[in-house]
């Protein structure tokens, strides 16, 4: 049915393990009568978004991809929300959701102060800027780097570091909600939540849930 | 299937026209294979939430209703988000979404500064407090009262005043997104949007969309 | 003389030891020619305000008490300031002061950044919301829980934990003023101040002082 | 009795009409058995605090006055709160209250957003800085200048301009509480309140009420 | 002398009139013994930065230009500060200054609240995001669009609209400093200042002054 | 040439070692063809600005000095920016730059969050107030006292404590830029930067660079 439509979740990096983690994370949002949810990676993207240049380098490719793709809604599945506003221009009114944006918004409903598990010190700086840009500084406890690449986070070896980061954010910064600051970390959500004892938000899931809502509500 | 579950949308006032407006607003979120979405009113509630006492008077009844209701998730469909945190205690871990909360969060993704169409000057004050409590003051342009009751807003006569409020928020306060500050206003969303030329958020829809997401994601 | 009037200090919980602590705390504000200061407890209240439901459960009883009580001003002596705005509606223009409100305002005049000694982690969350609601986040160092009930704090055994919380707020959070986050803690003010070496605010005292001022100034 | 003590209210300017206005404003706070309340002007002060230099010029004289005066508490009765922190150093632990400080704090308890009636555009700038310094920007609607000297405001001719400023702050800036931004305006409080229909705060009254509270509570 | 070095001011758009306006604006900062100041345009850039895509499209070209250019410091002369952080990565430690960044910082020293003359409603939104990202929202009065392209602003016909925007920002938004929100507006600075009666900041000048400072101070 | 003009850097304290440190710090900003840069101390000033009274005591002498001095621009070289706004009134339109002001603004361009190395706990409080007054709280990590006088900081013995303060601000408060909170610390800038591994800002240098810019741009 036309109402149901199609959501394209784009991983702005070209990593297959990260894409697979995203694929698994969003699967529960596929509903019989609901929108198709497709996941793809930006084949021309870098293997991970590590530097600011990496983030900026995918903006035009994402704009071009969205401009020519017939999907009804889009999710940018990188926690830097690269090119979010430019892609919205390219989408011609179709919904475009950023995962950092929706991960942080969801966190606001689960506690008073959120912390973010970050890839690296450079990610910490980008997140500080982004939280301020969103105007959410009053709810932000800080970010904690795990010194890993996006692709690393899709593997098992990093789990202990994610848990440690979550614990430090809770104990030393007073975070009562943890947000996973990379799409690749999706498979560790429950383990980190169980170990840290605080709600943990997997951001791609919430951006897709929002896209689903936007699609259903577009006609009314 | 158990995963799909049931969302109960509770109108904390006892007004039938307001409840009918809510019912119509959330209908597009009923998806084959997705959660059941039930809408009910608090029969013991006041006809509308006008005073702070009205808002506070429904908290314990809402807690009691949620504690004994077997639904899997709840939406409190009054823009004062009455008793949101107490109801969460009563829900024993089941998701509870407030419509002001989610209406404002959705607005953050549609523009830089949101304004709220309010029922009355007393509502304007409550909204100012709530926006500060959520830590969203940096994105808030203000509220504009239409001097109507909740039940009034479910009728046609109020539409012109809603449009006028939206226009004033845009022109005089710089709002680039408008949030409807009462569940009863739901039926006017598109008309206000068309007349004002800014995105208009119907908050109950987004609280239900969030509840739907929470239900689907609860098991993973 | 009519000008002097009567201030009713209501302890929203039913605890006798907490009420006795309040009684002792406000005694110095009784002045020969000044207002009568009466202290009472809400007999229908819970033994302490521990949960959000506890806080919300006393709102209507407090409104009703104030509506029928002939006193000239009221102080709500629970640090959750339960029902402050609803009670103001019920008071018909007579002053109603909250102890959290006035404790925090007094703290602003004694240092740059205040910390709050809290009963429990749940209180910490309520305080975070309330500080944001008041718009005072720029002056807030945080809250530190002592894991005690309101009634516990009126006894001697808790003193060491109050001192420890004050020290942690000063040393780890940079608080240069400490606010006691429960009316029951009143009897420990001086001891905590001496031990921590920072000004310590007993909030009920300052709400009563404000009520006294409001009464004297009401006619001019 | 020693507990009662003496509060010295110092008008940092040398104007007799302003001093007389202060004298009248604080009279209701004289209570049998309560502290003596003396009012004086800084004879070496300028006729009014108009420029930043005026404000800064009275700091050392105020420090010296307080250091050698045996009063138990002090109120600095100029809305620039000149030298508040230096005078506190000079007071050796005795309470020193600023009228801007306490006028703004009182306003926080009467509405959501306060506006200030200012003497001049230069005062508006000083007030903007001071509100930020206090960390109260989230509650501030702005200041409105009446283009008058401090001494002018103690006369009758200025009343219409004060009312007009209050009305503009309410209607155009959304202020729901008005603070009189000069001690000389004290005699107009009730008239402005009646004309504007919003609570109006006379700041010297509230600084004296706070000094009274501090004196009574000093020993406990 | 090596210390003096070379500053390259890059206009990220390809417009010759805009580049000429920049050239004239920075001329007074050329000092006999000081750094060389070169001005160039990004020949591959769009004729003006109007959309978010325009802004994002110049990031990689700017990074590449800076990476291979031997200048000692760089100024990005577009008020969107496009790619500021990515270009800093590319500059290998050499100073990179954004004109929005330095225009806003200079404005903070000239008044309490700044307003920005913007090209278009889309620029207004970008500026709102950028002011928040910089954490300067407490000093921001808003932006006013003149509905012109960058190249338009380098001509004479736009001057009246710039003056009008400055006047509206001062009168309706309370701005006491005006920032010109496009490098092309540089030639109108004095005229707008004279007409509006408020200090007006030409941002490229202050970014170049900062680059000059950074170069002189790099060795110590 | 008239354009070049003369900048007078005034050390508000009378300390010769502090003045010598300032002299050395600003030397690189002397450019052939650029403004003369003179450094002097306020001979009537205290040996260091330790108390709030110290800071306030130099305001009128600074105003008088500036009013009668024929220099074209002024820098107040004390991190309390004493009398900044009064001195601006006295300067009759000539630029007056504060070193705290410009040190903090420069820091905003080097990282996300700045920390300040302070002389004493009293300085920490003044800095907290000043950062709020400037509206920069969203970028402030805190201040760390070294328990030294201004004159102490001009010597070698204090260097280890400065490094330690910088390290604590980085590690415990998350500062990614360090600002030296006293003009006397200037000679340690590079050593602290090398030891801490974060950019370190010497504030007098940036206030002088800004004065230089203002002088060059005054005529256009």
Automatic annotation (TrEMBL), chains A, B, C, D, E, F:
The lineage of its organism: Bacteria, Pseudomonadati, Pseudomonadota, Alphaproteobacteria, Hyphomicrobiales. InterPro entries: Asp/Glu/hydantoin_racemase, Hydantoin_racemase-like, Iso_Racemase_Enz_sf. It comes from Lichenibacterium minor. One of its GO terms (molecular function) is amino-acid racemase activity. Gene3D superfamilies: 3.40.50.12500. It comes from the Bacteria. This is Asp/Glu racemase. Belongs to the HyuE racemase family. Pfam families: Asp_Glu_race.
């Amino acid at each position: 049915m036309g109402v149901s439509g199609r959501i394209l979740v784009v991983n702005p990096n070209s990593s297959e393990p990260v894409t697979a983690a995203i694929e698994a994370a969003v699967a529960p949002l596929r509903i019989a009568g609901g929108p198709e949810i497709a996941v793809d990676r930006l084949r021309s993207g870098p293997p991970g978004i590590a530097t600011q240049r990496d983030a900026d380098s995918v903006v035009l490719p994402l704009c071009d991809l969205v401009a020519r793709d017939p999907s009804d809604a889009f999710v940018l599945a990188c926690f830097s929300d690269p090119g979010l506003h430019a892609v919205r221009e390219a989408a011609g009114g179709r919904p475009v959701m950023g995962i950092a944006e929706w991960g942080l918004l969801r966190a606001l409903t689960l506690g008073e102060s959120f912390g973010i598990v970050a890839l690296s010190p450079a990610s910490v700086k980008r997140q500080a800027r982004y939280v301020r840009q969103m105007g959410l500084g009053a709810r932000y406890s800080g970010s904690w780097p795990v010194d890993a690449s996006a692709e690393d986070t899709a593997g098992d070896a990093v789990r202990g570091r994610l848990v440690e980061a979550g614990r430090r954010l809770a104990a030393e910064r007073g975070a009562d909600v943890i947000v996973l600051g990379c799409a690749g970390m999706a498979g560790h959500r429950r383990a980190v939540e169980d170990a840290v004892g605080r709600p943990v938000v997997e951001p791609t899931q919430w951006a897709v849930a929002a896209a689903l809502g936007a699609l259903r509500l577009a006609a009314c």
